[in-house]
Amino acid sequence: MAIKTTGVEWKRFLADEAYWGDFCVEEEVISVNGNCLPMDHGTNPKTVQDGDRIAIHEGVVCSQEYEEGHPKEMHDLGQFFRAWRKKQTHVSFTVECKRDAADAIKAAVVAHGGKVL
Hints:
Distance between the termini: 28 Å
Number of strands: 7
Number of helices: 4
Largest sheet: 5 strands, antiparallel
Strand content: 25-35%
């Protein structure tokens, strides 16, 4: 089952150099707004907009340190993303509402210390 996120959260994940360390992603299958992207396009932040709907279908995260010809560590991309997400202190999500409720919902987000992107 695909892991779903937003474009803004996906880009934050990709940009977190401290979390990624010496890891890289391979064999990824990412869809953006329901369209599967060719390899490397889904992991290129320049191809993703903040409001895009991202789905992680497959992928392997490998350390760039090798042992006996193989990466020393390998992780499922989805699990690697979930572990990163759990460490975050803030979340991003998309909200759909009736037009006449939008201002009240935005005000509630701001009143609780959130930011409307």
